[in-house]
Structure formats: C-alpha cells, structure tokens
Amino acid sequence: MADNKLRCVVVLRIESSGSTVIAKYDHAAQYETHGGTGSSSLYGDRDKDFADAIQDAVSKDPPGVGGSGFGGFKVVQSDIHQLVYGTNESGICVAVITGLRYPSRIAIKMLQELYTHFIDRFGGDAAMAPTNSLTKKSKELLSGQCKKFEDPSNVDKAQRVLGQVDAVKGQMQDNIAGMLKNTEKAETLAEKSDQLNEQANVFKKKAVDLKKQMKWKNLKMTLILVGVVVGLILIIVLPMILKK
Questions:
Q1: Statement: residue 161 has pLDDT above 60
Q2: Angle, helices 139-148/104-126, rounded to nearest 10 degrees
Q3: What angle do CA 38, 137, 63 make, to 5 degrees?
Q4: d(CA 203, CA 226)
Q5: Shortest CA distance to 152 belongs to which of 30, 24, 8, 5?
Q6: Average pLDDT, the chain
Q7: Rounded distance, CA 191 to CA 68, Å?
Q8: Which helix (H) or strand (E) holds 225?
Q9: What is the pLDDT of residue 1?
Q10: What is the DSSP string of 87-113?
C-alpha cells in the first residue's frame, strides 16, 4: 500500500565503470520487518535491500548534471514507492526512497540539504571512499535528516496547509456521514411512528367492533331471559286461570 514514509537514503559515487555505495541509512528498519521492498520490479526482490535497489536504478539511469553544483534530479516511481536522486559534477549522488505519497519536491529539498552537510563533513573522503566506508561515520547525519524530513508537514508550509485541509475535509466527511446516519435514524423512527399509529387505528377499530358485538350479545341475552321469564309465568298462571 502506498504511503508517505521515508524508506532509505544512500550516497553513491558514480564512475564510468559503475557506481559505489559509500554511505547508507535504512530508515525503514524502524517500522518494517525487512529492508527489502517487496516484489516491485523497480526495487528488486525481497533478498535485496533498499541500497542495492537504489544502486541498480541509478546505474541503469544515471542522473543528469545541469551546470555546477548539485542537481539533475530524477524521480522514478513504482506501484508503491518512488526513488528521487541527483548528483554533482564530480559524480557524488544522493538518493532517497520514499512511499509513493511522499511529495517529490520535499524529497528533493531533503537531498539538497543532505548533500550540503555531507560534502561539508565528508567531501574530502567521498572521492576515494570504498564501499560503505562512510556509513558508520555519517549515520548521525543521515538519520538526523531522515527524522527531520520524516513528516513533510514539519519542513514545508504548503504541505502543512494541505495536511490541515485534509484534516478539515476528513472532519467534514465524518460530520456529513453522521448527519446522514442521523437522518436515516429519524426516517426509521418516523416509519415506526407511522406503523404504531396505523396499528393503534386498527386496534381502535377492532375495539369499537368488539364493543358493538358485546352490546348486541348482551341485548340478545336480555331478550332470551325476558322470554324465559314470561314463559314460566304463563306456564304457572295460565292453568290457574283456566281452572276458575
């Protein structure tokens, strides 16, 4: 999955015969179980670490050099990562691998600042340094730059504003989702209320019908009782009248 995390920073020396990694720092080791980058074709297989992947990519597509100083930046992207690198006229190349969502302009800003500090401290050794010979000496510098640029919003006002906009946007989306959910609940309550009203009307109608039925039943019982009483009276009185 694409993210905006820093993975690895590497300093190389590009020569006609190839490239040499003279310093590296694997920042991804803090939050990933291995230094490899998965199955992405840009960064090699799992048995390769980030530094090897960077060296392969730079060797295949060296950065251009535009005049004096540090420049000729290139940005190469895979499905989840991006590689940003540049070089000076002497072939000292600084490269960084980041998540695909890490802003490339911030990565370039990091490389420019890192290059300046690295040359100030190790420029005299960089031209002839063997493979990884400056890794230990430059670890504090490389790790410090990674920590500084770990969160793009900490070093770039525009990115900070974009982050705030995204936060507000996310909050608004949550609020809208909450409102829609409340609306759905209100509609559900209204439907249940209508159902209860309908059931109450049905119950009321049935109660009226039952009352009418009971009233008619009581009337029939009364008539029957009256008939029985009259019949008994006639049975008792009529023979007495006839004897007289």
A1: no
A2: 170
A3: 55
A4: 34
A5: 5
A6: 83
A7: 75
A8: helix 157-243
A9: 60
A10: EETT-EEEEEEEETTS-HHHHHHHHHH
SS3 51: helix
End-to-end Cα separation, the chain, in angstroms:
120
Q: Cα separation of 96 and 6, whole Å?
A: 8
Does residue 3 sit in helix, strand or coil? coil
Query: pLDDT by residue (tens digit) across 129-143?
Result: 999 999 999 999 999
Which residue pairs from 137-145 have beta carbons closer than 8 angstroms and sit at least 24 positions apart in sequence? 137/23, 138/11, 138/23, 138/25, 139/25, 141/114, 141/117, 142/9, 142/11, 142/23, 142/24, 142/25, 142/114, 143/25, 143/27, 145/9, 145/110, 145/113, 145/114, 145/117
Task: Give the closest residue to 144 by CA, choosing from 108, 106, 126, 118.
Answer: 118
Element housing 13 (H / E): strand 6-15
CB under 8 Å, gap of 24 or more: what pairs does 111-119 form? 111/70, 111/73, 111/84, 111/85, 111/86, 112/70, 112/86, 113/145, 114/9, 114/141, 114/142, 114/145, 115/70, 115/86, 115/88, 116/70, 117/141, 117/145, 118/11, 118/23, 118/92, 118/94, 119/88, 119/92
Ramachandran region, residue 237 (left: φ > 0; alpha: ψ -120 to 50; beta: rest): alpha
Token output for 61: 């597509």
pLDDT band at 45 (very low <50, low <70, confident <90, very high): very low
Query: What pLDDT, on the 0 to 100 scale, is given for residue 184?
Result: 75
Reading the block at residue 119, the tokens are 């040359």
User: Nearest to residue 56, comparing CAs of 28, 80, 29, 36?
Assistant: 36
Residue 136 CA to chain centroid, in angstroms?
37
| One-letter identity of residue 209 | D
